[in-house]
Amino acid sequence: MRVTLRDIQRMKEAGERIAMxxxxxxxxxxxxxxxxxxxxxxxxxxxxxxxxHGSTLPVTLDDMARHTAAVVRGNARALIVADxxxxxxxxxxxxxxxxxxxxxxxGAGAVKxxxxxxxxxxxxxxxxxxxxxxxxxxxxPQAQHQIGLRVQGRDAGAARRLLDDALALExxxxxxxxxxxxxxxxxxxxxxxxxxxxxxxxxGAGCSGQVQVWHDILGLGTGRVPRHAxxxxxxxxxxxxxxxxxxxxxxxxxxxxxxxxxxxxxxxxARALGGAE
Length: 277
What we know:
Blueprint: H1 5-14, E1 18-22, H2 26-35, E2 39-42, H3 46-49, H4 61-74, E3 79-83, H5 92-105, E4 110-112, H6 120-128, E5 133-138, H7 144-147, H8 156-172, E6 176-180, H9 184-193, E7 198-201, E8 209-212, H10 214-217, H11 235-252, H12 266-273
Parallel strand pairs: 1-2, 1-8, 2-3, 3-4, 4-5, 5-6, 6-7, 7-8
Helix pairs in contact: 2-4, 4-5, 5-6, 6-8, 8-9
């Protein structure tokens, strides 16, 4: 039975911490289900960790729909939230069309969008039409060229704006908020003032839950691990070792052996090859 919005809200009310991970394909989604992850984000971070871009900006709605559908097929339990990518929710009609694709066609259970006051009316419109919306405040990757890659809300004015935005998004009908790269003290204060859950990433332990990028927690990255991430395994190193072993055995002739090969009757082969040079 799939996790619902009400289940997530009950976790918040009961003080149960909510674990959320990103996933971008069918096998990852299936592993997350077996691990008991209650909420999955099909993040536009796939632009970097899957497609190799330098930011989330090149990600399209087609990309998001394709990856979301694969995740939905791989996981029958988690609440699956899909990102609306860059400049696909600048107007309410665009946001409605994007939500229709990600939920109606790809099968997501909710959508996520970035921003505060500028998107409140859009969130309200989506929520009024039955679209579950997760907000995203603090460092918003789609606006990185404007705000910079840094912690947000450190001065009093910025902290107050973030709190006001959080309250406005809650009033508009958002069911949860991601708080990214926000001082832990501010994130805890915002969480205490909201009835809806907050999901932190680089925002301390005072949030209702946490979200991490699949590649970061599994050691699948090719560069520096972000400060806010904790690798729980080094799967990338294991994959590299396996590939090196494969390459070496093919080169040496050690693979394949009879165990990995099919056979046929030699007499049948002789008849088949009769007269062949």
